[in-house]
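Sorry to interrupt, but I need a hand with the structure work. It will help me judge whether the discrete encoding reads sensibly. Write everything out right here, beneath this request:
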Amino acid sequence: MIGLYTHGSSSRNELLDWEKQALERFFAKMSDKEKPFPCIPATIGFSMNQLKYGFVGNPRRDTTLNELAGLLNSYTKHSREFGNFTSLIIFYETPEWMLELPIDEFEQLFWEQLSGLSALDEFDWPADIPQDPHDSIWEFCFNGEKYFMYCATPAHKNRKSRHFDVMMLAITPRWVLQEFNKSNSYAQRIKDQVRKRLSKYDSIPIHPDLNTYGAEDNFEWRQYFLRDDDTSLSKCPYHRVLKFLGKNI
């Protein structure tokens, strides 16, 4: 599992300075007791040491997509060995000049990464998932696995739950979310707590696009990258780029 790290791993000594700093800031964010991170399943995965971490280059560098695909490929093969609350956390090398980019440029970079991943995917799209992102049960897939994608950036200021000091992805397998939702009553209690935490964590109201997977009025892609206000894109960029790449959708 080349490139995948665990909290406390001895191989952490081999990391570059920016990589060590990203890990330290992430650990501090996830272990903050005074201002707990809103996503409770993520904090559980962190506390149980089930999260895996990877590092890739500048999102504008041509080689970065291959690095990302390699890490996600390795994670997909082994994710079920890591525990029921596992996710893959990806940190991008984000040079200082990129820290000042407006949020819409980070949004574009995110969708370029997602679309580029699909272009490198050697597996067929799962038969039970529509290929149109504007279908309520669509979600991102890679290596035959279904994933929920989360992006955080330095440009997020009001929505602290989506802020990080470098561009970051949290990639969670659908089976993890299904395991979490096995008990409807338990899942609903946690979701209520998450929303309470969000209202305290962010300086603006909860984004209207946050919804439940499978609901008729829900589109997963809109939750992947939440803007720093209550606006959202009218059409999924991933859909458009896939057409351009000649994917059969």
Notes: The radius of gyration is 17 Å. The first strand starts at residue 52 and ends at 56. Residues 240-249 have pLDDT under 50 and may be disordered. The helical segments are 17-30, 40-47, 64-78, 103-120, 174-180, 184-201, 221-224, 237-244.
